[in-house]
Amino acid sequence: MTIAAQLTAMDFASTEEVRWCPGCGDYAILKAVRQVLAEIGRPPHEVVFISGIGCAARFPYYLSTYGFHTIHGRAPAVATGVKLANPGLDVWVVGGDGDFLSIGGNHLMHVLRRDVDLNLLLFNNAIYGLTKGQYSPTSPIGTRSPSSPTGSVEPPVNALRFALGAGATFLARSVDAQQDHLPGVLARAHAHKGASLVEILQNCIIYHDGAFGPISEKAHAAEASVRVVHGEQMRFGKDGELGLVFDAETSRFRVARPGVDCAAGEIARHDETDLMRATALAMLGERQGEPTAIGVLHQREPNGAPALRDLGQVAPMRRETLSRLLAAAS
Fold first, then answer.
1. Is residue 64 one of the residues assigned to a domain?
2. Which of 93, 125, 234, 330 lies at 20 to 30 Å from 77 by C-alpha?
3. Is 290 exposed, middle or buried (0-12, 13-18, 19+ CB in 10 A)?
């Protein structure tokens, strides 16, 4: 029997008491991650979880893998160092929308453009939860919070459009409560050679309950989201009665009813390698009446010379070499 066959989700559970608010979406994400780790089959001592600061940053405590709870926004930089020091490790990075897109936005941008072989999980609840509910970079216009008592005025950051601009070679989106979808997306991200970014839409029941509306509700998710699968038509609705048609003039998708607004064959098929359409999919949901695209939106082979994604071909850095580098940087 192989090691992979012996591992279960509980093999990746630590003895620490899980201390998130009851009803927090982090519980569902933790469940999915443990399940996927068991399916991947790497033993816990070959896996590392790096986090920054925030509710999501408690993640390493609840896994039996190695972990590093770092400082705000710097988790991608620390994870890059871990991968440099020991390329054989399976390295995951966890951060919230504030951690990754505010104070850590520059670090996220550079780890994506360098294409370091890391699995980055962005927990997006569109609020600062740990510091008691201030609006975040992904909060919608009009969000009332302790730091925006009359309502926020900035348009929210679209995490996947940001990632595309940084040159990401893999980006995907899922939802905390959709346990029939999230594990599969995580597995795809892990299989990608290079930096993979998965945005996970999650609910903060205390400070931003219902942040993503019907997409988090089982009864309405089919109409509020479209699950994209490479090579398949992009249909949604309870019976697949709605679909997406690509408008070349505006470079955006529009919602149509096959047989009513368009011919059935006009419904677009998803192509993960198409950068223009990936951008259009990332923008879906920004306008009223549009579904949010979930699944693998974009995956491509890296362009140009080998980059930090190829660290697996390099011998681990010697301890004395790492010590000299750290001393020189101090």
1. yes
2. 125
3. middle
Q: Is residue 291 part of a domain?
A: no
Q: Residue 11's domain is classified under what CATH number? A: 3.40.50.970
Do 319 and 189 form a contact (C-beta atoms < 8 A)?
no
CB atoms within 10 A of CB 104: 24
3-state helix, strand, coil in the chain (%, to 5): 35, 20, 45
Alpha-carbon gap, residue 84 to 317, rounded angstroms: 7
Of 310, 47, 289, 45, nearest to 190 (Cα)?
47
Cα(115)–Cα(125) distance, integer angstroms: 25
Q: With contact defined as beta carbons under 8 Å apart, do 216 and 210 qualify?
A: yes
Q: Look up the domain containing 186 and give its range.
A: 3-211+300-329
Q: For residue 220, tell me if it sits in a domain.
A: no
In-domain check, residue 290: no
pTM across the whole model: 0.90
Question: CA 198 to CA 321: how far, in whole Å?
Answer: 33
Task: Name the band, by pLDDT with cuts 50, 70 and 90, for residue 1.
Answer: very low
Rounded to whole angstroms, the Cα distance separating 228 from 23 reads: 28
Q: Dig out the tokens for 287 from the structure.
A: 């306008």
pLDDT 10s digits, 34-90: 999 999 999 999 999 999 999 999 999 999 999 999 999 999 999 999 999 999 999
Assign 137 to helix, strand or coil: coil
Q: Is the dihedral of CA 59, 61, 62, 63 positive or negative?
A: positive
Angle at 17 between CA 13 and CA 18, to 5 degrees: 80
Q: How many domains does the chain have?
A: 1
Q: Are 128 and 85 within 8 A, CB to CB?
A: no
Q: How far apart are CA 89 and CA 297, in angstroms?
A: 26
Which residues, 6 or more positions from 321, have their beta carbon under 8 angstroms from its beta carbon?
none
